[in-house]
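Final report, Chapter 2: Outcomes

The project's central promise was a pipeline that accepts a single protein chain and returns its three-dimensional structure in a standardized token representation, suitable for archiving and comparison. That pipeline is now operational. To close this chapter, we reproduce one record exactly as it appears in the project archive, with the input sequence first and the structure output second.
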Amino acid sequence: MRRAGLGDGAAPGSYGNYGYASSGYNACEEENDRLTESLRSKVDAIKSLSIEIGHEVRNQNKLLSEMDSQFDSTTGFLGKTMGRLKILSRGSQTKLLCYMMLFSLFVFFVIYWIIKLR
């Protein structure tokens, strides 16, 4: 069935030889391709950033566990030292106790000074 005035060779939606519909389609397709590439590069950047964050979290967890074990050993050491000081304080050796306390304060300030210079 043929309609009058439409012509034979024009496909529906092509608007004849002018190509308006196909050029609009190509422009949209190019825009979609450009946006897709932009999105792909952003996704790749986020992926690499999340991988780096994962590595950093693992390293920080390792450091925290090492610090925890060091604090535990230091706590045990200080507990033993305080126990020894209590034993010394029970006796009449107050002069020796004062010397030990002064030496401990001296060591503490030397360590503090060394850390502060870093």
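Archive annotation: The helical segments are 20-90, 94-117.
This record, like all others produced under the grant, will remain available to the consortium after the project formally closes.
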